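This follows on from our talk about sequence and fold. I would like you to pick a protein and set down its sequence and fold. Go ahead and set the record down below:
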Amino acid sequence: MRRSQGSQRSGAGAGGHRAGNLPLELNAFVGRAAELTQLGAALGAARLVTVTGLGGVGKSRLAARAAARTRPRDGVWRVELAAVREAELVEYAVVEALGLTDHTSRPPRQVLLDHLSKRQLLLVLDGFEHLVDVCASLVGELLRRAPGLRVLAVGRRPLAVEGERLFPLAPLTEREAAELFADRAAASTPGFTLHDGNRADVHELCRRLDGIPLAVELAAGRLRALSPAQLLMRLDDRFRLLTGGGRDALPRHQTLRTAIGWSHELCTPEERLLWSRLSVFAGQFDLEAVEYVCGGDGLHPDNILDVLGELLAQSVVTREEGPAGVRYRMLDTVRAYGADWLGATGDTARLRRRHRDWYMGLATWCELDWFSPRQREVAARVEAELPNLRCAMEQCLSEPGGGHLGQYLAGTLWFYWVGCGRLSEGRHWLERMVLLDTDHERSRLKALWVLGYVAILQGDTVAALAALAECRERAEHSGNPLAVAYAEHRTGCLALVTDDMARAETLLRSALDRYHEIGELNSNVLMGQVELAMTLAFQGDLPGAVRLCEDVRRVCLDHGERWTLAYALYVLAYAAWTEGDLPGARRLLAECLDINHVFNDLLGTVLAMELLALVTAAEGDAAEAAVLQGSASRMWPSVGLPLFGSAYYNAPHEQCEATARERLGDERYEECVRAGERLGRQAAVGRALGHTRPRLLGALPPPRGLPEPPDMRKPAASPTRKGGETTG
């Protein structure tokens, strides 16, 4: 938020001393309630608090508001250092701000020490980042020799003084940024209000401006000529668009470019070079990626950590921690500024190729490590790197001769598309990649069988058949036995979900034999065993299905594999339910559901929910079974065709519904289903696992006998509808 420049001395404080010189607020202070509370607590706990953050993020306004809430005996005094260019003038600026008059020969620092030694006041040093060394020296000595002094420093980097407590300020939330936009827009464009017709555009605008208050205010000022929708359309050239600002604003805050440029001016040549090169990253990135992509040609890899540390200190880069470990991020506005500089050096194409190469290597490593105890970490890593992987694939599509690299990258990420709830996005990239003509057959074949796999799990039989047929034909022609095995495997999977059990068994057995001959062993191969087990279970060979899945479970435990294990547990639970072992089925399904939920595997989750509903009905709780069915029905639209349109997969659902309707009656059953449909996925899984399941008021006895197999004289469905994001 822009600071107001006019300042006004407050009235006399205790002992006749003036109580401060904080500026009066000339417009509304929007949001930041939590930050105000936290900053107030920090000021109460430490004598030196430094608010850091990017230019235009609202540091000065927040600090002034927090300082105004304090009540030191001798007031709050603000020193604006932005206009001070010479280090030796800093002490004079503080003397002047405090309103001190001294005609002796004493140096200004001594004047300050004498004045502050017995006073209790808060000194706000604003805009010190270009004078950090002299300010650090002054603040350190003042704090040591004036026990009643507290300092609130405001700048783009820390002072690095002993006892300093840092308060990094993030941009506004999207909601707060929209409130700020509406307030400033109403001031500059009378009659402006947020309404259903512009609310979505305003929120998107604030999101793309990173919630930086300065950028939001400058955008609001443009409403005199443009609508929010028009502003969005022109935002790609944000530095030209967002100019203006009030005449009373600091010069460096009158345009977004100069606000960011002020930080750029404070950087060394190495820091500016790294800033520009970091602009090729999207979203988060880690140190190893920075060292590979940005090193060389004027920036030695051994120096990158130190240079990156300086950019962190200056709030150009922020540090974040998450499931994938310590990572870094640049706001889009900061990245755009760096990209302009990178373009001016003519080095953009080279950096983007290095970026692409790094993420191709990362995808290759992650595919290999998926079949290991690090599977969960791999999922978190790819989730964190998804924006960069998207950029890498776009680079493959845009660069002449890069098509085979894109096919390789999109195919290599199969484990993420099908294992972590991203089928829809995977389908998008794979379809774009297989349209490219390349001379690298292996990459194309991999993309084809992965596309077929994705289409199967979405319920798109026609697209799956086309991709797998092309894959097998080209693989046989080029003599690629591995691609033949994968094409045959996935064709067998397609036969399974379209109820052709005899063909599914033949194809899956053949594919597993091919894998064995080649020496292939990974999650895909184990999934082939699970799918074969499912065909046996559906055909009544439960012992054969159990033997296959117990073997899969053993191999999974040996290798630390969890994702395929969940599907093996599903088949074992199906067998346990069929044999009447309801406690065993529930235990297996609970573990299955827990694993699938961790991986965000929607298909595995909803299949487990469907079978768990039947187990619950068989245990006698028809109402809870109906609730679980309702929660599953809410998930299916995000997965694909419910139960693949398969009579075999649908049989447990139909039996559960019939049992629940008989015991509850149609009206009560529908009521319970609707209750389940209102549950979000997190709540539904928690309930299914028993975390929030209500106490039973009296279970009905389980039904006698086992269900009849589905009537396979009915034609199998041949779905073509595409589903949403899912897994397999």
